[in-house]
Automatic annotation (TrEMBL), chain A:
PANTHER family: INTERMEMBRANE PHOSPHOLIPID TRANSPORT SYSTEM LIPOPROTEIN MLAA (PTHR30035:SF3), LIPOPROTEIN VACJ-RELATED (PTHR30035). Keywords: Lipoprotein, Signal. Residues 1-32 form the signal peptide. This is Phospholipid-binding lipoprotein MlaA. One of its GO terms (biological process) is intermembrane phospholipid transfer. It comes from the Bacteria. InterPro entries: MlaA (IPR007428). GO terms for cellular component: membrane. Belongs to the MlaA family.
From TrEMBL, chain B:
The keyword Signal applies. Pfam families: MlaC. InterPro entries: MlaC/ttg2D (IPR008869), TAT_signal (IPR006311), Tgt2/MlaC_sf (IPR042245). Gene3D superfamilies: Tgt2/MlaC. It comes from the Bacteria. PROSITE patterns: TAT. Transmembrane segments: none annotated. This is Phospholipid transport system substrate-binding protein. Residues 1-30 form the signal peptide. Keywords: Signal.
């Protein structure tokens, strides 16, 4: 249910790849290290908060929320359709990343899923794969970097893109260039692909409106709440075990 | 020498078990994995019944609130989210805060369960972790891939209750700690003012 928080919004996909991939990988070694004793690795908190403020203002202007009435751009079934189609378009990239992580089973599942939803699901607008229990195994280059042992780096908020980490940002940039769809669709076709992705983001924003609004407009510190939610969700997705403290033990041990 | 008299053996075993239980303070009613699982099974059963009841959304949220109040260790969640700020605070103020928090939490997570309407939750596993139990469940909602919901359960309060809920890694206890901490900061650390505002929040 949190998956719309995962990918930076709006990143255009273009140009030659190899040099950039190498540069991104090299820059990761310069990732900010966590400060001992800090709950989050967030050395850019001041800048992040400023960008977050702008993002929330933009979100409110476009989608409403808080004191501003909600705006709906798509009827619900269409929102779901675009959300499905955009997700389906991420499958070739997920297949590639699963392969890079040596997750052959995941790659096979996502391939089958992509074939099924693109054909019987009318270009991915519907999701017959889910109906028969063939669920996606999400994978992106940020995850691949994690599997390869790269450090997470600092928490970062991107203008429009929202929450990410240095590792996930590097991953998103690499994903732009290695996306198999970019090799197949050129020029105007690729613009259409991008259009579907953006419509999918609008669909997601609408579908998960309650959840997103509760973070952005109904919390005392939306930045802190968003950071916590993003990092916990992402760690769960990457299979990073959270530090298991036992608050309960202490509480009832007190006399 | 084997004991020939089963009734005598039963008596002996029962007596020694009782003695052992009495000898271990707090261990007498120790929760087991099965009991933790049974608790969440029951809770999830009630949630599923509400989801399937076909009542109005408002009525369902009310029912979810009741379930939450019945099965959660709200006292612990309230005081733990307050953290060190609660230490040394006036008892009456703290009591008032816990009451206000109870309503706030039930309303907030009652609403959250609204997203489960049209779906089901199924308990899949339970295991001991440190001093508590973690019960795993899978939520299957309409038009969504199934996702995991974990419940942390303990009997340390004297009753079997859950004290934390983790939806796809996102942890209720830490989210509320962040929220209550921020609210308290905004009110200059005034717990009474926090309690007052919690009554209309969530």
């Amino acid at each position: 249910m949190w998956h719309m928080l995962k990918k930076p919004f709006l990143l255009s996909r273009r140009g030659p790849a190899t040099g950039l991939v190498v540069a991104v990988l090299a820059s990761l070694t310069a990732c900010a290290k966590p400060q001992p004793g800090e709950e989050f690795n967030d050395p850019y908190e001041k800048q992040n908060r400023a960008i977050h403020e702008v993002n929330v203002t933009l979100d409110q202007a476009v989608f409403g929320g808080g004191d501003v009435p909600k705006k709906k751009y798509l009827p619900d079934p269409l929102a779901k359709g675009f959300s499905n189609a955009a997700y389906n378009l991420s499958m070739p990239s997920a297949v590639l990343n699963n392969l890079l992580q040596l997750n052959i089973n995941g790659a096979a599942k996502d391939t089958l899923r992509f074939a099924l939803n693109t054909t019987f699901g009318v270009g991915g607008l519907m999701d017959p794969a889910d109906v028969i229990g063939l669920y996606a195994e999400d994978a992106d280059f940020g995850e691949t970097l994690h599997v390869w042992g790269a450090p997470e780096g600092a928490f970062v908020v991107l203008p429009i893109g929202g929450p990410t980490t240095e590792r996930d940002l590097a991953g998103s940039i690499v994903d732009i260039f290695i996306d198999p769809l970019g090799q197949v669709f050129k020029g105007r076709d690729f613009v259409a692909v991008e259009g579907v992705r953006i419509a999918g983001q609008v669909g997601n924003r609408q579908e998960y409106s309650d959840l997103i609004d509760s973070i952005l407009y109904e919390s005392a510190d939306s930045y802190a709440q968003m950071r916590l939610t993003y990092l916990q969700y992402r760690h769960n997705q990457l299979g990073i075990e959270e530090d298991v403290s036992d608050p309960y033990e202490e509480f009832y041990a007190a006399p | 020498m084997p004991l020939r008299n089963p009734s005598r053996r039963t008596v002996l075993v029962t007596a020694s078990a009782a003695a052992a239980a009495l000898a271990m303070p707090g261990g007498a009613f120790a929760l087991t994995t099965d009991q933790a699982r049974a608790l969440i099974d029951k809770l999830v059963g009630e949630i599923n019944a509400v989801i399937a009841s076909g009542k109005s959304e408002g009525a369902m949220i009310k029912d979810f609130e009741k379930i939450f109040a019945k099965y959660a260790d709200v006292n612990f969640i309230a005081l733990s989210t307050l953290g060190p700020a609660g230490r040394g605070a006036n008892k009456a103020v703290l009591g008032d805060y816990v009451t206000a928090f109870r309503g706030y939490l039930s309303r907030k997570y009652g609403k959250r369960f609204r997203e489960f309407i049209g779906g089901t939750i199924e308990v899949t596993n339970a295991k001991p972790v440190k001093s508590y139990y973690e019960v795993s469940s899978v939520a299957r909602l309409r038009g969504q891939a199934p996702f995991d919901v974990r419940w942390q359960v303990s009997d340390k309060s004297g009753r079997n209750l859950f004290f934390n809920l983790i939806i796809e890694g996102v942890n209720m206890l830490s989210a509320e700690r962040t929220e209550i901490g921020a609210m308290l900061d905004k009110r200059g650390g005034d717990i009474a003012a926090l309690a007052r505002d919690l009554r209309s929040a969530g």
